[in-house]
Design brief:
Family: Belongs to the UTP11 family.
Protein name: U3 small nucleolar RNA-associated protein 11
Strand order of the largest sheet: 1-2
Radius of gyration: 40 Å
Subcellular location: Nucleus, Nucleolus
Function: Involved in nucleolar processing of pre-18S ribosomal RNA.
Pfam families: Utp11 (PF03998)
Shape: flat
Number of helices: 6
Helix content: 40-55%
Length: 229
């Protein structure tokens, strides 16, 4: 009977739409929409109730340092500036650590570039190493010369398989990307080293363009010579 009952056609129940007189209020709210709205309303109500209880039972003698280190601007608590939070010695130490990290990355990239250059040796330039063969007569010398020329014949790039050419292309692209990264790291390292030197003691001044021997786009500084003990 259950299979017969399931095979009979059933009426498709449609959701009730908003009456024509209430079309201005938008779509008709269903029960699931009411549940979502009610939960959001009760969550806000509970949060407000907890804040009221917290304010009612607040200790009037309570104190913490953010009461004097922060201020309210437009209803939002903003912390005061911490520009002078660290001393000069601490700033120099952090600058040294940053320079050491950049230098380590620079050396790592250079090692990877050397390894790639060793792998991607040019196919057009054969090896410069030479071998000495000894022959008893001219005929044997011609045979040895013919065998050596066949063995040392360099294959053309066009004759290589597609997978090898694809790997070579990706390796050359990686080499170019790493070389560009090395140039950027060297520039960052030079800038950070210059900033570190400028933070040290000693009188210095920035040279004018007519005082620079070799023109450069970066600023050049000159320190006043001091007598050392």
């Amino acid at each position: 009977m259950s299979s017969l009952r399931n095979s009979l056609p059933r009426r498709a129940h449609k959701e009730r739409a908003q009456p024509h007189s209430r079309r201005k209020f938008g779509l008709l709210e269903k029960h699931k929409d009411y549940v979502v709205r009610a939960r959001a309303f009760h969550q806000k109500e509970q949060a407000i109730q907890k804040l009221k209880e917290k304010a009612a039972f607040r200790n009037p003698d309570e104190f913490y340092f953010k009461m004097i280190n922060t201020k309210t601007s437009g209803g939002v608590h903003r912390q005061e500036s911490v520009a002078n939070k660290y001393t000069k010695e601490e700033l120099m130490l952090m600058k040294t650590q940053d320079i050491g990290y950049i230098l380590q990355k620079l050396q790592t990239e250079k090692k990877k570039i050397d390894r790639l250059c060793g792998m991607l040796h040019s196919l057009d330039n054969p090896s410069s190493s030479k071998r000495v063969f000894y022959a008893e007569d001219r005929e044997e010398a011609r045979e040895i010369r013919a065998k050596v020329s066949e063995q040392e014949k360099v294959p053309d790039v066009e004759d290589l398989p597609k997978n090898i050419k694809r790997k070579m292309g990706s390796s050359y692209r990686e080499l170019e990307a790493r070389q560009g990264r090395v140039r950027e790291l060297e520039k960052i390292y030079m800038d950070m080293a210059m900033q570190k030197e400028l933070q040290k003691k000693g009188r210095k001044r920035k040279l004018r363009e007519d005082e620079i021997v070799s023109p450069t786009s970066r600023p050049v500084y000159k320190w006043r010579q001091e007598r050392k003990r």
